[in-house]
Amino acid sequence: MTYEEALLWIHNRLKFGSRPGLIRVEALLERIGNPHVGLPIVHIGGTNGKGSTVAFLRGLLEGQGLRVGTFTSPFITTFNERISINQQPISDESLIRLVERVKPLAEEMDQNTEIAGITEFELITVLMFLHFKEQQVDVALVEVGLGGLLDSTNVIVDPLATAITTIGLDHMDILGDTLEKIAVQKAGIIKPHAPVIIGDLPIEARDVMIDVARNKEAPAFIFDESYGYQELGGAGFEFWTGESRLQLTQPLIGHHQFHNASVALMTYFAIAPQLGLSQDQTLLQSALDKVRWPGRMEVMSHEPLIVIDGAHNEPAVKVLVDNIQRDFVDKKVTILFAAINTKDISSMLTMLREAVDNRLYMTTFDYPSAVPISKYVDKFPSEQLHADWPTAFETLKGELSPDDVLIVTGSLYFISQVRDYITKSEGNT
Fold this sequence. Notes:
The chain has about 425 residues and is of the alpha/beta class. The chain has an eight-stranded mixed β-sheet with strand order 4-3-2-5-1-6-7-8, with helices on both faces. A six-stranded mixed β-sheet has the order 12-13-17-14-15-16, with helices on both faces. Strands 9-10-11 form a three-stranded antiparallel β-sheet, with helices on one face. The protein has helices at about 5-10, 25-30, 50-60, 90-110, 120-135, 170-175, 180-185, 205-215, 255-275, 280-290, 315-325, 345-355, 390-400, 410-425, and strands at about 40-45, 70, 85, 90, 140-145, 160-165, 195-200, 220, 225-235, 235-240, 245-250, 300, 305-310, 330-340, 360-365, 385, 405-410. The chain is globular and about 55 Å long. The protein folds into two domains: about 5-290, Mur-like, catalytic domain (UDP-N-acetylmuramoyl-L-alanine:D-glutamate ligase, 3-Layer(aba) Sandwich); about 300-425, Mur ligase, C-terminal domain (Protein-Tyrosine Phosphatase, Chain A, Alpha-Beta Complex), CATH 3.90.190.20. The chain is built from 14 helices and 17 strands. The two termini are about 30 Å apart. Helix 1 crosses helix 4, helix 4 crosses helix 5 and helix 7 (about 180-185) packs parallel to helix 8 (about 205-215).
């Protein structure tokens, strides 16, 4: 196979859509020797903040000289980055070899109606476990795809720890229409006796997590009880847990990143005894200094100031609006937005309009479920609608004054395309 053929075969499994359940992924894993069994894994779920928390925790563990695998989605730059070791995406050659190994098994499964139709995400999950097993990672940080209980990553049975970053209303057609129902799905990754780090959750979701942890005898580290943080101004914050108090800085933009960094730090502290990790403040700070996470409040240009942010659902837009009101209060903010049709766009647009009034511009992009510009015609004046996003971007960029900021936001799939466009057109790296 060529690399393009391997990717095409993976992506063609999209026709099976999102199909919660473990029967297919378990069947394929069984056929290739269950590579996930025995892997040292930290399983990370939540509505938002998973990727940033993975980035912080990866940095902390790499700072200890460990070989750290990360499984994240969606990708921002290249498909291969979804499966990475020490920030190096899986090579094209390795991906081809692994696809050639699982393809005949998956196609054999397609002949059995009970396990037929393994999905794209399930396949990528299996490829990830195979790669990390072969490469003998010291720790694998595995991000949940959707939900938790029935997500294909939940074949993990004995993790080092689990973490639940945030809970909000998203994917309600699959996970449920209340915070409690969604929390039950997210809590599905909590495993018996494995530490669980619980982020800053709404009280009804928090109570679900605590009950599940208690029933599974999983030690629970609860935000604002077992650990927390206090902002110190600028990039500084004080992280605390038990008797430990560390004064640190973190490099990512946005006040929500103090929370994500704290969830990562608490997870690090929770697994430190098992892995023999140092808790020295100087070493931890050196590790945090190197953390990067593309596509999340990422500054693409300083003059003029251009920021891209994958605020792809209602909770993420709330965070974006908070960051605008706190960090850009002295600037005129313009937003270019595009979304996919599985999201509650109306509430997202209401919040964005309140933040920037008539400086909210709608566009669309090349993706199967992208919301077409026609959907906005009755809701926005024609001058705020742009069918071609590169033209819209260049036009809005050209209108910026030195005190203005342009934020491009919405679907992470959209942000990926915008980031690639900016990087190539301006020679950024």
